[in-house]
């Protein structure tokens, strides 16, 4: 991202912070709608989100332009608004700490306890719990703008889940798009079902008599089984467990072939898995046949080569006399050649 883009992003976030300043200032003067303690705390949490966001942008700007002096204005603006909100909360008798405002929403009308905002790091099996809680606490809160809801959403996300939506600019229009992006990515019943199966097999063993460990095992299995029942039939559960056991016993290449063949719009069956394994067997058998054939051809070629070499060696060592043409001796042992005088030997 260029320096101009970063400065533009800083200006947008600073404008949002200034808007909170205007709202808090109007509330202090008794102008417009009076803000309740819950609304003040919510504004404090949103202010915190904006402050973290703009500091991140400011750090990137300073890495490019070390002479930039925007940090002081940002910190002064944040401290002023934060102190004003804290002051108004004290006057209303509803003091709160900065940390509490970032993680809780109070409901003073019926004295219910505070609900902590849920968090989500990208684990498929936890998506439905997260999104249901988030919608109940934040998304259905009519007193919050989409920008405020978006900042709460970003605060709740971590890891891969945050990577999924962090490219969106924080605007009113992008908030529903970010929710839809999360839904498209993580609301996949097949992946949730398969992850629950894996979790079931990864539960720790109870190696010794322990009521606590045994109770934990029973509770976890019961919860996972209930979740699986809501996602598939008993036959689907049996199929998935059988596939998990078999895939745990095959080589990594075969396991990868199976995963590549999956259609994540429906739950896999043992028949699907069996067909893939059967084709894999046929493929490996064809490789084995080709290997045996090549070895036989190679061995045959070596045998022919040895025979040819042996025949050539035999012809080279055949005993033939160059003088009398007899095959039982060489010329050096030829008696007729020896009987000749020396000049005659050279002539012959």
TrEMBL record:
| Superkingdom field | Eukaryota
Q: Name one Pfam family in it.
A: DUF1759
Q: What is this protein called?
A: Uncharacterized protein
Please tell me the species this chain comes from: Musca domestica
